Amino acid sequence: MTHPSGSFSFDLVIFGATGDLSLRKLVPALYHRDVAGQLNDDVRLFAVARGEMPDEEFRSLARGALDRHLDAKDFSEAAVERFVSRFRYLSLDAETPADYAALAKALNGGTERVLVFYLAMAPRFFGPICTQLAAAGLNRPQARVVLEKPIGHDLASARAVNGAVAAAFSEDRVFRIDHYLGKETVQNLMALRFANALFEPVWHRGVIDHVQVTVAEKIGVEGRAGYYDHAGALRDMVQNHLLQLLCLVAMEPPNAFAADAVRDEKLKVLEALRPLTDGTIGEKTVRGQYAAGAVDGGAVPGYGEEIGRDDSTTETFVVVKAEVETWRWAGVPFYLRTGKRLPVRRSEIVVQFRPVPHLIFPAAARDVVPNRLVIRLQPDEGISLHMMSKVPGPGGMRLRTAPLNLSFAETFQGRQPDAYERLLMDVVRGNPMLFMRSDEVDAAWRWIEPILAGWQSQSDRPKPYTAGSWGPSAAIGLIERDGRTWHEDMR
Ligand code: BG6
């Protein structure tokens, strides 16, 4: 079976292949693309990690991961066997040159083939690995490197990482993953805005009151305490995923659906974000940390207990009021909100329109609510436009808000591919549109860093919130002080 958008021959090397990201996301994504017919028979997959293990042991790890993470209906014994047999395992220490020589030997020949190095590792390894790949002659013209977020820990470390990588791989061969950009519903934001004539004429401060971007999770830190406690929600989610969503909502129409045209427009948005200062951080941000509570009726421990230390000041919840200083958006706040251990898992963008300029209806019908466009990124992917309608029947002109609903599951049947499937194949194709360019990463850190610094200089800690609630009450206060409310479905 060949996939309609083509099938490919390539070599892929996964560094950190035995880690969580690799087994939970990359292996299943590659399996799906294999089953879809996009991987030619000669595709070679190399799993690389520190420990020693025979190929067969890694294959059985991959088999186990597929068993755990695939829907039962997608698991075919024969397809799984065929897929896992593509893997070879190599033990490699990131800083040992001889190990790269062994990798180069294993990759023998095929210098014309696309060669992808996927660094599913902590960012401190990105520079050293790229340096070693170059020293071993593996940064050949068809080679690409994929970096997982976070790129660095702050502006200086991000620049150091990008600099070290750039010394080995030119920018067009560096693919920085923000997996939100690979989600179908996030890609659909561009279709919504630029393939429909309806929205662009109203997409500005004259008609839009404000925008809410919420990424709510039910999960806690899930065994990633070592990473998460050093990162926190602002670095883990806002610096990348939420800012990218903001960019897609706020950017000017690019002149073409082309990688740099789109990324140039996103960069302009990031550069137009009003910097937060020590004087405004208290009023425009809220950070919280979950305390013990209940999610889905089950008791869950507080953050301190979960990570095994109770003096952590890491935030697991954050709200930031962002402002884009452009003619289009002046005075339109973008409220960014994300947190762990919230009552539901839901990511959505709410575009709140202004009230009608003049009400013609009698007093009884005056509960007219301004229009609201809700873009549901996950779950229940879809779009609803909340509009005022007449309530049918007698009783005069009674009005009520009702949604015009587009459900992706009902409209487009079939499986929604995971973000990593799309992103991995885009790397192979050499299409960087859905990846962050280094100047975007830089601009995002430039905006985030003063917030981190401001928080650090404050003596207060993140405000506690009960697991299973919508964060500290200050998060509600922040938006209500502006005379607005969080989208009520979220409560
Ligand atoms: C990752 C973060 O980038 O995104 C995690 O590191 C978070 O902390 C995850 O849980 C959320 O992704 P998704 O696709 O489940 O919304």
What does this structure look like?
The chain contains 16 helices and 17 strands. It is of the alpha/beta class and 491 residues long. Strand 15 and strand 16 form a beta hairpin. Helix 1 crosses helix 2. The longest helix is centred in the last third of the chain and has 20 residues. Bound molecules: 6-O-phosphono-beta-D-glucopyranose. 6-O-phosphono-beta-D-glucopyranose binds next to loops.
What is the CATH C level class of the largest domain, in words?
A: Alpha Beta
| Biggest beta sheet attributes | 9 strands, mixed
CATH topology of the largest domain: Dihydrodipicolinate Reductase, domain 2
Radius of gyration: 24 Å
**Total number of domains:** 2
- Uncertain regions: pLDDT < 50 for 5+ in a row? none
Number of helices: 16
Question: What hetero molecules are bound to the protein chains?
Answer: 6-O-phosphono-beta-D-glucopyranose
- The spatial strand order of the largest sheet comes to 16-15-14-13-7-12-11-8-17
Oligomer: single chain
Q: How much of the polypeptide forms β-strand, as a percent range?
A: 15-25%
CATH superfamily of the largest domain: Dihydrodipicolinate Reductase, domain 2
The whole-number mean of residue pLDDT values reads: 94
**What share of the residues lie within helices?**
25-40%
Structural class: alpha/beta
Number of strands: 17
CATH architecture of the largest domain: 2-Layer Sandwich
**What spatial form do the alpha-carbon principal axes imply?**
globular
Distance linking N and C termini: 46 Å
